Amino acid sequence: MSEGDWLTLTLHGLDAFNKDVDGEVFARKLFKFMQGLAAADEAANGKRRHKFLIADLKKNTATAAVREQTVVGFEEAESSFNFYEDGLSAIYEDAARARDLPHKFVKYVLDINKDVGADFVRGEIKRQSTGKVIHIDEFLEQRARKVLDDINRRTTGALPLYRGIAHGQFDGVLQVLDSREGQDRAVLVLTAGGKQVSCAISQAPEEQLRAAWKRRCLVYGVAHYNGESGLPARIDITHVEPIDHDVPPITQWKGAFDLPLPDDDNWN
Questions:
Q1: What domain count does the chain have?
Q2: Model confidence pLDDT, tens digit, residues 8-24
Q3: pTM here?
Q4: Domain check: are 12 and 136 in the same one?
Q5: What angle do CA 37, 215, 147 make, to 5 degrees?
Q6: What is the spatial distance between Cα 60 and Cα 82, in angstroms, rounded to a whole number?
Q7: Confidence (pLDDT) at 246
Q8: What value does the mean pLDDT of the chain take?
Q9: Looking at the structure, do residues 217 and 174 belong to the same domain, yes or no?
C-alpha cells in the first residue's frame, strides 16, 4: 500500500476538562486501536506482516495517525488497513459479514468505544486515502456489542446463519470476469480476509465492470445467503464503484510501535 495512506484515531474530551482528553484514557484507546490493527494484519495475511508507525501526533486534539509498513521479505502482503476499514464498516452497518470477523478484532473495536460519554465525548477513526470516517460513539458501541454477542452465540450453535436474499455493499477486487455468451460470471475477492464470492454480472453496466477489473471497488447488488456462512453464496451485481488511492506521500513521521503488543484485554 501507499506510504501516503494512514489511519487516524481522534478523541474529543469532556466539557468538565475544557474538552481536553484525559491522557490515560487516550493511551488506553490508542492501545486498543493498535491491537485491532495487529488483529487485522493477522486476519488479512495469516500472520503479522506489518509494523505500524506513528505518522502524526496532535496534543491539542488528542489525535494519532499511523501508517503501515511491510516487514522486509513480505512485500506482497495484503493491506491490514483494507481489512480494518472494511471490518469496521461491517460492524457499523451490522452487516452479515461482520459475524465472520475474528472475535478479538471485534472485541478491540468494542474496547475503543467502551465508556464513551463518560470518559470522553466521542471520537472518529478515519482513513486518509478513502476519506472513510467511522464515529466512535454509543451507536458503534451497541453495534460492536451485538456483533460480538452473535459471534459468541454462533460458536455455541445458538445462532443460526441467515438464509435468504438481501441488498448489500461489498468491498473487494473483481479478479475474474467472464462475459462470454451464457457465462456472465465473476469472482469477487473480498478485502476482509481474501475470501472469494461468486458473482453474476449480467445486470451491471459493462463500462463499470471494465473500469473495476483487478481494482479494489465497492460492489452493490442482491446477495444470496444459503445459511452455511455469514458471507453470501452469490452476489447479483447491479453497480460497481472503483476505489482510488492516488494520494500525496507523507513527508514525515514520528516514532514507532513495535508490535505485536501484549494481548492485554484487562486494560480497557
A1: 2
A2: 999 999 988 888 999 99
A3: 0.70
A4: yes
A5: 40
A6: 28
A7: 44
A8: 85
A9: yes
